[in-house]
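Justification of resources, computational component.

The compute hours requested in this renewal are based largely on the per-chain cost of generating structure records like the one below. Each record pairs the submitted sequence with a full structure-token output. That output is archived, and it is also reused by downstream analysis tasks.
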Amino acid sequence: DWLKQRDETLKLVLHPVAEPMISHARPEHLAFLIGPEGGLSEAEVEQAKSTGFHAARLGPRVLRTETAPVVALAVAQQLWGDF
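The structure output for this chain reads:
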């Protein structure tokens, strides 16, 4: 249900083998989907993509669930500034 309710201009699901975040243009509004420890299943990533999410990665390291949101926001701020 949460996936279908998102209307941000850029919706990213973090996935370790996707394109880097830098591949996307500056959004007006941004949503992240970050999985639990162990990551999202391929089926969950595909479900997110079917609702308009784009798979993106932060870099070569897999981060803990607790730190991934902070890093994702820091990377977004570095790439696009305040939005």
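The longest helix spans residues 68-80. Residues 8 and 29 are 5 Å apart (CA to CA).
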